[in-house]
């Protein structure tokens, strides 16, 4: 077989990557179903109040083995106060995930790529579009992330007895392993958060968007029309 050109190489690599993702998704789904069956038989301990025990068990092993660490507060918390927060909402169907993110991504709705273990009060702030998570800097690949306050009216809301949401603004997330959520899911959460803030005329969202564009030197211009 002779040498292949650059285009042929890219085609082969793309096909290989697609097959790898497909196999990975199938394996994850099998393990999730297997774990669920074991839970139904009473052979697996539920580790948190979250009903998806298998989902949470995998997250615990990736983020903080046998302990519950919140990467936003950068502290350990009692497990009763920690929840598994979906980045892309769990109510979005697998079919919708496939449509938005492409083939093979649907089952990642219930994978560690789409989740963070967070203090419950912070998970609520994320769900209410009061905060979002964006890249810490322009370094590629992205491994560092930070919190941005997207609702200035929520600045003085407490997430615990001693700290407010405003104190989290620009705070870098601290992970205990090399695992990170998928960048595409965090970007999706950020943009949908800003869209919600714009629709509700939330104070501060426009400043957050302007600063994000400045820090990223005009990248991600393909999403600009959504926020006009």
What's the gist of this structure?
This protein has six helices and six strands.
Give a structural overview.
The longest helix has 35 residues. The C terminus is likely disordered. The strands form three sheets. The chain has a two-stranded antiparallel sheet. The protein has a two-stranded antiparallel ribbon with strand order 3-4. Strand 1 and strand 2 form a beta hairpin. With 228 residues, the protein is of the alpha+beta class. Helices cover 39% and strands 11% of the residues. It has six helices and six strands.
Specify the number of helices: 6
Unreliable parts:
43-51, 221-228
Specify the structural class. alpha+beta
Termini separation: 52 Å
Helical content (DSSP H or I, runs of 4+): 25-40%
Largest sheet at a glance?
Answer: 2 strands, antiparallel
Instruction: Report the strand count.
Output: 6
Overall mean pLDDT stands at 77
Taken from the alpha-carbon principal axes, the silhouette is globular
What's the gyration radius in Å? Answer: 19 Å
The neighbouring-strand order within the major sheet is 1-2
Order of helices and strands: HHEEEHEHEEHH
Strand content: 5-15%
List keywords for this structure.
6 strands; two-stranded antiparallel ribbon; 228 residues; two-stranded antiparallel sheet
How would the blueprint of this fold be written?
Layout lengths: L5 H35 L12 H11 L5 E2 L4 E2 L5 E5 L7 H8 L13 E5 H8 L3 E5 L9 E5 L33 H17 L5 H11 L13
Antiparallel strand pairs: 1-2, 3-4, 5-6
């Amino acid at each position: 077989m002779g040498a292949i050109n650059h285009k042929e190489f890219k085609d082969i690599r793309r096909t290989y990557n697609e097959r790898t993702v497909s196999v990975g998704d199938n394996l994850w789904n099998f393990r999730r179903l297997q774990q669920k069956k074991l839970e139904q038989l009473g052979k697996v301990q539920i580790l948190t109040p979250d009903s998806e025990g298998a989902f949470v068990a995998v997250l615990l092993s990736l983020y903080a083995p046998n302990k519950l660490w919140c990467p936003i507060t950068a502290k350990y918390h009692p497990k009763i106060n920690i929840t598994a927060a979906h980045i892309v909402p769990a109510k979005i169907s697998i079919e919708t995930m496939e449509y938005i993110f492409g083939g093979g991504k649907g089952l990642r709705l219930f994978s560690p790529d789409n989740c963070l273990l967070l203090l419950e009060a912070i998970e609520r702030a994320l769900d209410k579009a009061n905060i979002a998570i964006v890249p810490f800097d322009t370094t590629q690949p992205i491994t560092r992330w930070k919190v941005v306050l997207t609702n200035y009216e929520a600045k003085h809301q407490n997430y615990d007895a001693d700290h407010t949401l405003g104190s989290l603004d620009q705070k870098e997330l601290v992970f205990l392993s090399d695992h990170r959520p998928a960048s595409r899911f965090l970007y999706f959460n950020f943009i949908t958060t800003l869209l919600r803030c714009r629709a509700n005329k939330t104070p501060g969202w426009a400043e957050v968007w302007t600063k994000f564009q400045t820090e990223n030197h005009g990248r991600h211009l393909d999403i600009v029309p959504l926020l006009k």
